[in-house]
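Format notes (please read before filing issues)

Several people have asked whether sequences and structure tokens are stored in separate files. They are not. Every record keeps both together, in the order shown below: the sequence lines, then the token lines. Line labels are part of the format and must not be stripped during preprocessing.
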Amino acid sequence: MTAAGKKILVALLFIIAGTAVYFAFFKSAETPVATDQEPVQEARESSSVYLTSMTDLEGKPVAMDENKLVFINVWATWCGPCNMEMPGIQKLYDKYKSHKDVAFYIISDEDAATVNPFIERKGYQLPFYQYTGAYPSALDGNAIPRTYIIYKGKILAQEIGASQWDRPEVVDLIEKQLAEI
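Then the structure lines:
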């Protein structure tokens, strides 16, 4: 290989490495919580962001309340990041559980025989549900935890991965939306 060929090869390798570093560290795949911005994503006209065929842990059908501000968390008992964020979700739920315009849905595809002992062991007082259907395209993904705050078919905030859900920005977002209801 000639000296010029080696220089071109090294330059190409630097470009490839730089691109990889950019996408790995600077180009985030997750959408941050929106605060004073427009909703993160509009609901698609042809597909709802609400889940159907959901059940409580006793197997009774449950319909999502589309007229409320909805907090959806998709999780699993075996998921470390899911377990890390659950205390913050519990605190947020405790703050809004009595509010008539807020509904929480903590959703797993695991069966009640797996989820119930976990809940008892941890002492959570959250509204846990099961969902085994295909998620609407706006909520679809293979990563957990996935969390969405939705109102009137619009995703106001979404986050993939563990988060501290009782932090001030989340409370401010919820309070701002509730003031407009």
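For reference, the curators noted about this record: The longest strand covers residues 102-108. The CA atoms of residues 33 and 170 lie 7 Å apart.
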